[in-house]
């Protein structure tokens, strides 16, 4: 009876999650760029004007709604994970019936928290329509193009690798030169990247205990859903080749008769990943170690006590270490003070982690990352209807780092107290 009640609670939470994301989608259109009309229909325009006139100028309502909504999403997610039935599969029929509308709702939402999607679209447009290399020519060189009106960072050339520029031509092609179709095509393409990552993670986990729970922990996280489906960031197109490379490496290691075609495929996948976003260079040393770890055991140095312990530690916490290494590029100047969607990189390994502490840190970071958007919600520079808010980036960083810092200080304090008690 208790199990049935838990199962019912779980599905009720899943439906509530769907409802909350429906509200998110409606709220997202508050932030539609004033120069953009997504649907040229009177009913939609009237609704859009209502949001612009009544919610956008109201600072307390705008910020209050965002905080309430993101807070509700975080709490719902935590309870959803808590009540996840042990024997239920991630793609169970009942879950799919709820998740498909959730994904579709987010796909049609506005990219409220980021304008990168417009950059992806226009860089592909520069290559196709104007026959020019977006890595050499900035968007501002095409001032008469109407699609430029709602693009930000028009003065910079394409910041992504050439691999992304090439594959972004696929969703651009399926837009058939219609903005709304192109917009939705790029969103679906971001979703496809996430689905590919799910597929390879599912294979890497194989038959591990609580596999579906671990996958849900990542793919139902509100930050992951918003940054992937709503904001349509391209980071999964960097991460799925990395995950695929480790899966192929695993297959290669297990083969008795080695097929070196797999090594060529790994190299090609890693080239693709690196030339999508350069941060995946971090994975290469781990991939080399993963492929050669069985041979390292035969070396004399690893038969001595200290190197043997180091190797044992690396093997035990391999996925945790690679996740932490993907966190390091977020601290560089190039990341522009920790862009929140880059958390997808270390979080991509969440289902594989062994350390509960690091897993909790990533979850806390995902929540604080959503909250760190508050300064941007408070101050919208493209409208300038409010007074200027100084040090926006500083406030964003303070919000982002506060929660993880408090959590780790609490862990440290607990550890100190335990050590003091043990000494007594």
Can you offer a commentary on this structure?
By secondary structure, the chain is an all-alpha fold. The chain contains 19 helices and no strands. Helix 5 packs across helix 8 and helix 11 packs parallel to helix 13. The two termini are 46 Å apart. About 2% of the residues have low confidence.
Question: Shape from CA axes?
Answer: globular
Structural class: mainly alpha
Low confidence ranges: 381-387
Give average pLDDT, whole number.
87
Cα distance spanning the termini: 46 Å
Helix content: 55-70%
How many extended strands? Answer: 0
Q: Give the topology string: H per helix, E per strand.
A: HHHHHHHHHHHHHHHHHHH
- Strand residue content: under 5%
Alpha-carbon Rg, integer: 23 Å
Instruction: Please report the number of helical segments.
Output: 19
- Tell me about the biggest sheet? none
Summary of the model, kept short:
Helices cover 65% and strands 0% of the residues.
SSE layout:
Layout: H1 2-28, H2 42-54, H3 59-82, H4 93-107, H5 116-128, H6 162-167, H7 169-173, H8 179-205, H9 211-219, H10 222-230, H11 236-254, H12 261-274, H13 283-296, H14 305-316, H15 318-327, H16 344-347, H17 356-371, H18 374-378, H19 392-423
Helix pairs in contact: 1-3, 1-4, 5-8, 8-9, 8-11, 11-12, 11-13, 17-19
